[in-house]
């Protein structure tokens, strides 16, 4: 099967659309997953005091 | 600085230098009579200089420091100083180029000083020289702090930093000799491109190995941006520079792509260079240094994750908006336009996130020019991403394309966003790295801020006016259906704006020179900061019996 312009455009217009939608849904779910809130807060605060040297 | 390497590390560094010297020698011999020969000499000299530094340290005793107790900041320090050097060189070239457009006699009739040769020295000098070195240096800083881990390796950070600068020097000197593969922001020829791939792979491995040593379960979001910058720039660089050298002993090569495919590959690269070199990496800076300086956590960490993935997956498809009304298939143009408009969402999410972080700390923005640099950078980020989405719309692009409006847009992003966030980060990190109380002079920081802001605003307004005047003159027809204005008419109309642009650029350059001076004086003359420790000191005399606050 040749990789023609028609084939690429069909893939872009079908598969391309759906995988981007799936990605957006997946990422939104990850970002707003309730139980991850604590981890994100900890990460956001972790940079405010980080000059005490490395742990390893 | 090489004294802090162990004996074995010094030997590895020396071996790399010897290999580089041999490569330079071979290039110089094989490419004599071609610009490649001159580049061989440059590589040889660069290898010789680094060898001198290593040899001076080679007989010194082994370092006594305990490497587990501190971060490794020497390459960061060197990178910041080099970045400021490139800022002055690159922006100085920019002012010269701008002045040549207003007063063409300033070329002084030399071949090397023609617009086509010094313009890429300006663009590569500021993007790769200034921006790239600042990104590498701050990424070393941020990856260590956010991971609570020292850099994984002591030779590879130097290899990446110095190797990258060798690439920049080969690129800039090549332009002056007329070496170019005629791809914007990817002008260097094949051997420089191969060298950059080697450097970049080492950079990526170093970053991943440092993250693997981390002591925090979650990788802080700034690292995601830096990693996207490293990884995607590697992919873009390799694909866009696929080329066949005309001869292994000469600089000239031919692209692996032809016609519109070549154009599409170039602008897929070109726009993603804006996205991942000039945006993702600097967003990494923003997400680390802005909360740090404001002493407040980022407003919404969840939003920062959303905008990260939005930027990564939308930007990759936006490049075709550079090829509206060309031989590129219409649907690919529309695809690029659509994704460019969608990009407004993650871009404004980041800009809004930064400004909301400052909400409640506006008094700090008022008092602290360093934080103000970052605040204005976030505002310009929001402005220029809005403008970019707007200009990618085909109908708007029909007016703006090929005019100075594009130049104005790029500089709103490059000066207002990229340079300001970089200067803000430099001012916040320099006293910390050199253990100074503050910068040498806060007044100079204040001066720099207002010079940079004034320069950017003058520049951008001049180019908006010039671009729209130019675009309208190009599309004005007479009653008989011929063009109303000749090309020369448009040049006469644009001249005052070109003068204004050169003045705006000169103000911006003055600010950068003040920054370089201020950083130099901070390193040499600012008073040292006494560390505050929360454990007892060995001297009882300096220890108050009761803590002062109680």
How would you portray this structure in words?
The complex is a heterodimer of chains A (56) and B (550). Chain A is built from three helices and no strands. The mean pLDDT of chain A is 87. Chain A has a domain at 19-44. Chain A is mainly alpha-helical. By secondary structure, chain B is an all-alpha fold. Chain B folds into two domains: 1-59; 73-245 and 257-525, Cytochrome c oxidase-like, subunit I domain (Cytochrome C Oxidase, Chain A, Up-down Bundle), CATH 1.20.210. Chain B has 17 helices and two strands. Chain B has helices at 7-30, 35-58, 74-102, 115-147, 156-177, 190-212, 221-240, 259-294, 301-315, 330-342, 344-358, 362-367, 369-392, 394-400, 404-433, 442-474, 487-525, and strands at 243-245, 253-255. In chain B, strands 1-2 form a two-stranded antiparallel ribbon. In chain B, helix 2 (35-58) runs antiparallel to helix 5 (156-177), helix 4 (115-147) crosses helix 15 and helix 9 runs antiparallel to helix 11. Chain B is globular. The relative contact order of chain B is 0.08. Chain A binds chain B through residues 5, 9, 12-13, 20, 23-24, 27-28, 30-32, 37, 39-48, 50-51, 53-56, and chain B through 68-71, 144-150, 213, 215-218, 220-222, 288, 291-292, 295-298, 301-303, 305-306, 309-310, 313, 329, 331, 335, 432.
* Approximate shape of chain A: elongated
Number of domains of chain B: 2
Which percent range describes the beta-strand content of chain A?
under 5%
Unreliable runs of chain B: 537-541, 543-547
**SSE class of chain A:** mainly alpha
Largest interface: A-B, 29 and 38 residues
Radius of gyration of chain A, Cα only, in angstroms? Answer: 21 Å
Mean pLDDT over the residues of chain A: 87
Strand/helix succession of chain B: HHHHHHHEEHHHHHHHHHH
Quick structural overview:
Chain A has 56 residues and is an all-alpha fold.
